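Hi team, as promised in this morning's meeting, here are the two structures we talked about. I've kept the exact order from the run log so nobody has to guess. The first one is mostly here for context; it's the second one we should focus on when we meet again. Sequence first, then the predicted structure tokens.
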Amino acid sequence: MFTYAQNESVDTFANPDFVPMFADNITWYNDSVRQKAEDQCGDDYECLFDVASTNDVSVGMVTKDINIQLVNESNSLGKSRLKKYQELKCYAQHCYHLHKVFGYFSSNSQIQELR
């Protein structure tokens, strides 16, 4: 059962001014961050989205590295078997970390996780 800590309630975590960002409408905190992201991410859209979401270029670079790893693993496994899964971790109405899990379906239809 979920309970709040002492002196906490739903109001402790509510942020009525929060405006979510969606993948089809990236917004930037400032042009400096946007420029750094474009320089580092290139045309990697997920990298750009993660930088804009977190205001942290290093988060986007992790995403870009994972995307490169996925392509390399996809080429070595055969593209038809590789599936991409992702889980967006959101807490208190803010998304802080994008965690991606990559895997493929084995012959017994179980998802085999690649890390």
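And here is the second protein, the one for discussion:
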Amino acid sequence: MDKIQIIEPLGLSIDATAEVTGESTWIVYKKIRDGTYRARKSGARTIVVYESVKSAFNALPDWGDGTKLNTDKAWAAALAAIAEKRAAQKEAKRRERKEAKRRRSEQVTARSE
């Protein structure tokens, strides 16, 4: 039986890196900027060094080795903070509109006098 030889690529495009890692292209660019992934330029193209992607992946913590991260609480806290921020922004806009309406009303009253 013939053995199948897997040839690892030297580099990946930004899109291919995002697809392989399950990350967004924005995160891939961020990891290049912060040095997690190494990259090379070929003309206008950015090529991510495959070995750096593989090393970063292998450095991630295992999920099932007893050191399970409690992401449920972290996600809940993050979502609550986002919801709170949006509610505050919505309230600020409501107050802004109310104040603008009051000012317009005062201007109309002042003109009619």
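Starting points for discussion:
The first strand starts at residue 11 and ends at 12.
The beta strands are 11-12, 39-42, 45-49.
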